[in-house]
Structure formats: C-alpha cells, structure tokens
Amino acid sequence: MHCKNCQNQLSDKQHYCDECGAKVIVNRLTMKAIALQVNEEFFSLDNKLLKTFLTLFTNPEDVILGYIQGIRKKYIHVIQYFAFSLTLAGLQVFIMSVFFKDLMELNMYEGIETLPGQENNPFKDVNFEFFNNYQGLIYILGVPISAFSTWFVYYFLRDRRLNFTEHLVLNLYYSAQVIIITAILSITFLVLGLNYFIVSSIIILPIFWYLYFVLRRVFKDSFWETAAKFLLVCIIYGFLYILLMFILAIVLVLYMYLTKP
To answer: Please, which residues have CB within 8 angstroms of residue 240's CB and are 6 or more apart in sequence?
Structure first.
C-alpha cells in the first residue's frame, strides 16, 4: 500500500503516513465521512481552529513561536489561519452589503453632509463600496507593512531574535486574529442597530493593545521596553499605512473617473 499524497510505502496496519503525516483513507467517500471531517476540523471542541483562536488570546507565544520552532501539528498553519480570516471577512462584506446596505449607508453619511465645506469635498461622491469590495486586498497589503514595522524596530534596536520571515509569521497570526474578531463584532453591531463606523473606531484601541500584548509575550521584554518598541512600531506602521491609504484613494478616484459614464 502507498500513501495517496506522497506515494510513500506503507504497511497495511498504518493509519497515518510516517513521511507526510497524512491520514490513510481506505473507505469510499460518503456524506457521513465529509460531515465527520468538517466537524473534526472546524466545529468540535478540540479542533485546531478553536484551539488556535483561544490560545492566540491567552498564550500567543505558544502558537507563534511554536510554529517558528517547527511545531506544526498542534495549531492551524499560519497561512490556513489567515486564509480562514479572509474568508470570514468576505462573508462579513457579503452580509453587510446584502442585509444591512441601507443601515450602512445611513451610518456612513449620518452627520457628514452637515459639515461645512462639504460642497467642495472631492470625495463627497465617492462610492465607499469600492473599499468593501477590495477589503481582502487591503488586509493582505497590510500584513507586510506591519511585518516590516515590527522587524525594522526590533532590528534597529539590536533585537534580532526573529528574522523578517518570522516577523511575517507573527503578523500573519496577529492580523488573522484581528480580522476574525472585527468580522464577528461588525455583524453584531449591525444586528444590534449600533452605528457601525463609530463603534468600529472604538475597537481600534483594543486592537492596538492586543499587538502590545503579543509583542510582550513573544519577546519577553519588560513593560517599558515593550512599550517603547510598540510606540515606534505604531509610528512606522501608521506612516506606511497612511501612505498605502493615500495610494488607494488615488486609485479609487482614477477608478471612478475612468468608469464614470
């Protein structure tokens, strides 16, 4: 018998491949088998998804440093976890645009039209749906920016325990966690009838605090050392992110100009 994934020679008594770790499947595919696999991967209480999600809140260093050090079976792979978060973000955008479109537009423009000088605002006719449609792309572009920010600060301060790729892993897990929480809370806010944009602005503070928490747990620095590095990371990240948003705004204006009838 051979492994169907890597063609490694297996004995008849093996349940898992000793080369690639894949489970040996001998029975035909049935709906029951698919349901059991989905439950095992996503819904059971001991599944990797829930375990990864909870541990990133309580002991993020176990997930992040574990992956960096080669522990790949205990928690979800960093790319899979980030991909799952993007899928959830896409579901969030779909629900918002289909079921809460009118409420979103009301929240977006509530009070803005009364501001002085709005008649001269070049973005008064901007269709913000463009940003919702490309939200996943914005999230993806944000990861290398945050990874560069943390890597540069720690490298500049001669803390070179992690290279850039390892900082990328840290920020992928961090970003995925933030995206998942943001997606869940966004839908909750709309269901409760709260102003989406006001409450979303309030969430920014806990999100940045969580980054501080992750950095301190991963690098084991003191409170003040982490605070200083965190502040520098925020400054660099803020500058680069504003630059990215400026570029995207230009792209949006060009997009509107080219598609305007």
So the answer is: 145, 148, 149
